[in-house]
Structures are given as structure tokens and as C-alpha cells.
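Section 3.1: Structural characterization of target chains.
Under the original work plan, the team committed to producing a structural model for every single-chain target entering the pipeline before any wet-lab resources were allocated. The record below documents one such target. The sequence was received from the expression subgroup and is listed exactly as submitted; it comprises 329 residues.
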Amino acid sequence: MRLRELFIEILREKGIKGLGVNFKVSSSDPIGDIALLVARGALNIGKCSNFKDIIPITEKTADACVGRFEDPIISKRDIEEKDPFPFVAIDCRNYDFHREKEKKSLRLQIEQTLGVVRKYMWDEKLIITGQNFGVGRFYERLEDFLNEKNIKKVILLDPYGEEEFRKEKANCYVFGGIVDRGQERAGATSEIGKEIEKAGFDVESRRILLRGDTVGVPDRINHIVEIVLKVVLDGKEIEEAIREVQPPVVARWRLRKELSKLSFRVMVGDKVYRAVKKSDFNNFSWLNLKEADFYKVASEMKFFVLDEIPMKWTEERRCYQVSLNQVLF
């Protein structure tokens, strides 16, 4: 369930079949936009008789209007009382470990994470600790937030996590606001988990894997957050969620690894090369790839792509003999 669905549920409970609006609705999802504005406290729902347009919920009629009412029918409080959503916390206690270029990248990732959170929940569900970026809700320490909300158990998304993340539910998902890549920072997120545990909280460390490997799993914070929310709120399988979020460049990283396993030796003329078959592309529907990506990676790896024509095995060179007309790329 997303905020949009919760908002519709509340509207129906109040007997509201449609909403009147006095502003131009240009969004492709006006109900979702209004739900976000009500959850943020910018607007509420009340009784009125004058409106310019109608947003139907179940019927094209207006039982109430969107605006700012002193005695609303539905307000931020109604959403908070039925709130089934987790918190997304990004712990930036190690912000100063980064170089300036990395700090800029981290700030951008966190700003983009707010956009992700807004697709599923609303701003106050994003918690930023250790460094204030002007988005979500800021706390000096993650432990202060956990104590305030009486959250005893958290799931830490960590590339070095002890177990694989599947569909574990939690009131708070914690993401390390630090780049773990590079020897000097390897395991930095794990250290955050240890510090949270020392403060008395139950931390379950999980890593996201794609068919048993971290290669092909996006490493940007906004992407990881979106994968988790797709799984826990949309009910999607990990592999499906990763594919929907995965940038093509990340998919190509994984393809390189997989093509190395599939490649074989071929002889063209008197020279030996490595090659893959055109049909191998059909094995990668679980990656966010187009056929052009398949050829691009094969080219970068200096692999021939062969048509589905029978090849003759050459025992002497222990490879297949092929002709140039079998080479597609």
C-alpha cells in the first residue's frame, strides 16, 4: 500500500465519492498529489459548494472539496492515525569521510531520495541524521530519533550485511549515508550498525543481492531505498524491484560478468577469439537491458556475437571453427 491507496481508503470511509477542486489539475495522478499535500499538512478536505472541477474517487460527483478548512473532514491527523508506513533513515554521521565531490553526490542522492519517498509516503517519513540537507526531518543522531519514536528494532541495509534482504518488515529501515566502495571505507555502514546496537537497539543487517551477487544491484541511496519500498509496500519480489530501478549501466556491469561465463573459443580463419551466441540475450530478461546493450557489452569485451548456425569443433585448437558469415557483430 502507498499513501495514495491509504488516502482513497480514508475518503471512502468518510463516504466521499469525489473531490471538488478550485485549482487546475495538470498531474497524471491528482489523487496521489492531493494525498501528499494533505499528509504534509498543506491542504485538507472539507465541505464546500463552489468548485471548478471534480476529481472522481468512485463517482464523478463532489461530496467535499480540497482546500484549507478550519473544521476539516479529513486532515493530516487522519492519515497519521492510520499510518502503516515505515521510516526511511539515512545516517550521515560519517559525512566528513567524503571528499568534496563525494559530498556533492551524496547530497544529490538524498534529495532524490525525497522524491522516491514522496511516491510512496510523505516527507516526514524520511529521516536524515548527522548532517542537515534541508529535506525530510533532521536529527543530530539516529539514536535520538529511534528513542523519540520508541523504535527498538531496525533493519540496516548494508552491502556487507550478514543476511540477504528479502521481505523483512520493520518500522525503520536505515541506510548508511556513506560510500562503502574503496578499501578505506569498506564496512563503514557495518560500523554504523554496531554503534546503534551499542546504544541498545536491535539491528538486523541485510544486504540486497541479485541472484546471489551484489553486482547489478544499484548502489545509489535513492535506488536502494526505492528497491526496498517496492518490496515492502508494493509487495514485489526483489528481482523484479531491482530490474525496475536498475540503470542500464548497472545492468551492463552484471552482463559483463555473466557473458564471461557463457563465452567460448572460436576460430575465424587462423585466429582464435571468444564469442557468445545471439540467443544468449534471451537469458537476461532479469536485467534492465535492451538488445543494443547486449551488443555493446560484447563489443567492449571483444567477443564475437554468432548467429545460431551449427559450429564445427576443432580438437586441435580446442575451439569451434566458424566462418565470417556466422559473425553478426
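The chain has a mean pLDDT of 92.
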